[in-house]
Every structure is written in C-alpha cells, then in structure tokens.
Design a protein that fits this description.
single chain, membrane, transmembrane helix, mainly alpha, EmrE-like, transmembrane, 7 helices, 2 domains
C-alpha cells in the first residue's frame, strides 16, 4: 500500500511540475527557455541535495566502496538524465502538460514490461492490471482528443460558412 501511495504522490507531483513548467516556458510576463528552466531546477536540487548528503550519507564509506566503473556509470546516468530533462522541457513548449503526463505514464508502463522481458521479473496481477489501466487511459485520452478536434473543426467550418451570408450587400 505504501508503494501505491508513493506512486500516486509521484504522479501528482509530476503533473503539477508539468503544469508549472508549461506556465514558465510559455508565460506572458516572463518566459524561460528550456535551458534556463533546467539550470534553475538543477541549482535548486543542488541546494537541497548537498546538505542532505552531508548530513545523511557517510561520504568516506561511499568514496571507499565506489569503483571507477561505478563512478563513470553515475556520471553517464547524470548526463542522460540531463538530456532527458532538457528534452522534456523542449517538448513541453510544443504540447500540453496533460499530453506530457500521459506520455510519461505510458513510458512507465513500457519500462515495467521491458524489465519483465529483459530481467525476467514476475508479472503480478497488479502489474497486469496497472498496464491495462494505462492502455485504457491512453486510448480514452486519444479518443477525447479526436472528439475535441472534430468539434473544433466543425466550429471553424460553421463560422466560415456563416460569413458570406452576413456580408450581403444592400441594393440601392
């Protein structure tokens, strides 16, 4: 149950972050570039993580037990995470926060099933049910977008078809 609550809290905070990021990237009074947004969020995380690491982690033990290969993998992981974040911010400039959140949910389900295929992780009833919920949710979201687009197209056609009749000239 704690895992479920943690997953829901993660989803909620990521959705809020997506909405706030979209607001910052496409704001009226101020507009940040994806690189600026990445810089400021990185600086904020450094301010939080350095004191937490100093207080909670035995740095001498970590330094002794970390191999050069592990350090290289940590750095590579950081580089890839940086590019993932920049890509997410650039993508956020073009799509809605809801679409971005749906894509993230789909990505998570894909990664769970990739772990099943690659590492032989067991498929539980909950993971199967979760995947079904994700698939149905994505299908419903796509259907809602199609309906919204059709209604918008009809509205535009209706506005354009009404134009000539309102612009009739009077005979003198």
């Amino acid at each position: 149950f704690r895992g479920f609550l943690a997953a829901m809290a993660t989803n909620l905070t990521e959705c809020l972050q997506n909405v706030y990021s979209k607001m910052l990237i496409s704001g009226e009074s101020f507009k940040y570039t994806p690189a600026e947004l990445q810089f400021y969020t990185s600086m904020a995380s450094v301010v939080v993580q350095i004191p937490a690491s100093v207080l909670l982690v035995d740095l001498a033990d970590v330094a002794d037990s970390t191999t050069t290969t592990q350090l290289a993998l940590y750095i590579l992981n950081g580089v890839f995470f940086h590019f993932q974040s920049i890509t997410a911010y650039v993508l956020m400039d073009y799509i809605s926060p809801v679409t971005h959140s749906v894509a993230n949910t789909t990505k998570r389900a894909f990664l769970i099933w990739l772990s099943v295929l690659m590492f032989g992780n067991d498929v539980t009833v909950l993971s199967g049910l979760g995947t079904c919920v994700v698939i149905v949710g994505v299908l419903l979201y796509n259907k809602a977008q199609q309906i919204d687009l059709q209604m918008y197209s009809k509205l535009i056609k209706k506005e354009h078809s009404g134009l000539p009749s309102t612009m009739k000239t009077r005979s003198i």
